[in-house]
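Issue: ligand-bound run for D-xylitol-5-phosphate - logging full I/O for the record.

Environment: standard queue, default settings, no custom constraints.

Inputs:
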Amino acid sequence: MRQVQIAPSLLSADFARLGEEIKAVESFANMIHLDVMDGHFVPNLTFGPPVIAKLRPWTKLPFDVHLMIAPVDPLLGDFIEAGANIITVHPEAGPHIYRTLQFIKEQGTKAGVALNPGTPVDLIKPLLSIVDLILVMTVNPGFGGQAFIESQLPKIKDVRRLIDESGRDIMLEVDGGISPETASLVIEAGADVLVAGSAIFKGDASHYDKNHKALRGQND
Ligand code: DX5
Ligand code: ZN
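Outputs:
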């Protein structure tokens, strides 16, 4: 199986101990996935720039910030200042997706675009020259622990092909319902980065490394 990157999603971590939870995944995580929700774009609320800024000193790992807020543009600067290394936005969260991505990149931050299960893959074609990451959602955004939507697998393959044809260095990230069973399907379809919340933060911290190995298909 191809070697993929793992991005633990803090959404399933203990919110009263987020710093310690980062430390508990640091040895195997390639980046930390931070889900920002506003109770409006998605029906759930999490945290914003002040919490991210407080977490920043806990690790040198890249902060992969997934924004599920609308309007997204007014807060971009605050997330960049808080220490985001990658900012991923949904095209439905603002009027001008290209401008939003351009703004993120102008600040020296990597820019990603997220495709909801109902969002067509064609939308990314005009963005391939600018994006650094394409996130394919395999659940409806808003909650951890939801069931993987298998009908998104062909979309992952389509995105893989578009990235390869572009010749650009663009990460293909998959988010939602990743388990040891679905991980192999999305890797097979071409994913580079697996976001995993409930599959990593299962049991206490002594289980996290074993949980992550199961996603990589390493059962010891
Ligand atoms: C959902 C979030 C995900 C979430 C995934 O809207 O974008 O990052 O944490 O959770 P699991 O891995 O439990 O499906
Ligand atoms: Zn996410």
